[in-house]
Amino acid sequence: MSEAETVRLAVRKTYKLYIGGAFPRSESGRSYVVTSSGGDFLANASRASRKDARDAVSAARKAFPGWWGATPYNRGQILYRVAEMLEGRRAQFVAELADAGVRKARDAGRVVDAAVDRLVWYAGWSDKIAAVAGSTNPVAGPYFNVSSPEPTGVVAVVAPDDPLLGLVSVIAPVIVTGNTCVVVASERAPLPSITLAEVLATSDLPGGVVNVLTGSVAEIAPWLAAHMDVNAVDLTGVADGDLAVACEEAAAENLKRVLRPSASAGTDWFADPGTRRLTAFLETKTVWHPNGV
């Protein structure tokens, strides 16, 4: 057999959206070219449309009752399983981060390890955040007064340009507290987000709890901010100040919670995240109950 006959073409991966536990192409049929930092072609990624965003919100809403109804301990177990699966595909994520040029090759492994550790850290909070964020309140009268946190609902998240550690750091606190989410991945480096979606799809996470859209942030984010079935918006990855203001104004139409960290472009994702993101998308329910005689 000649040398020419033994040469084979590699099977290129098709990067699709992740909606409702499935991997559809954009209904618009659009895609865009993703290149490395050196300008080399890496892949074509789907360019999500408004219709894709609506489908993702519908999937997140459908998944919300079951995910909220799961025990906090069970949600923590599932996040830990995601960490296990991510650890098992470490080499693939290292290669994708290095190809994208987001980190130097020698640093990509550190990023993946930190993402795994971040998932484990948030998993540990699953059955503890209620004790920290809730309280028993002293009242003047024969009553028990108890405040407890509950998830806000469907959260739209614009992920930062750090395509793995930053992505994990904005998704994990949203879902471990019982919310579901629609994530707009990094437009510049979207490939690790879809690989992460593959991890989520094989980690016992119910379909629809996390939905990942790739494409133009300027196109998708305002529609998610204006969507009346979205309860909160995380604008961490919106670098354009005018776009962030427009999203905040759209979110005000149905009184969405909005998280827009200052100077988010300079966020150190390796730093201790604290509990700020855990409590950002929680509502507090206070119950009065008469004291027994």
TrEMBL record:
<feature type="domain" description="Aldehyde dehydrogenase">
    <location>
        <begin position="29"/>
        <end position="258"/>
    </location>
</feature>
<dbReference type="Pfam" id="PF00171">
    <property type="entry name" value="Aldedh"/>
</dbReference>
<protein>
    <submittedName>
        <fullName>Aldehyde dehydrogenase</fullName>
    </submittedName>
</protein>
<dbReference type="InterPro" id="IPR016161">
    <property type="entry name" value="Ald_DH/histidinol_DH"/>
</dbReference>
<dbReference type="InterPro" id="IPR016162">
    <property type="entry name" value="Ald_DH_N"/>
</dbReference>
<keyword id="KW-0560">Oxidoreductase</keyword>
<dbReference type="GO" id="GO:0016491">
    <property type="term" value="F:oxidoreductase activity"/>
</dbReference>
<dbReference type="InterPro" id="IPR015590">
    <property type="entry name" value="Aldehyde_DH_dom"/>
</dbReference>
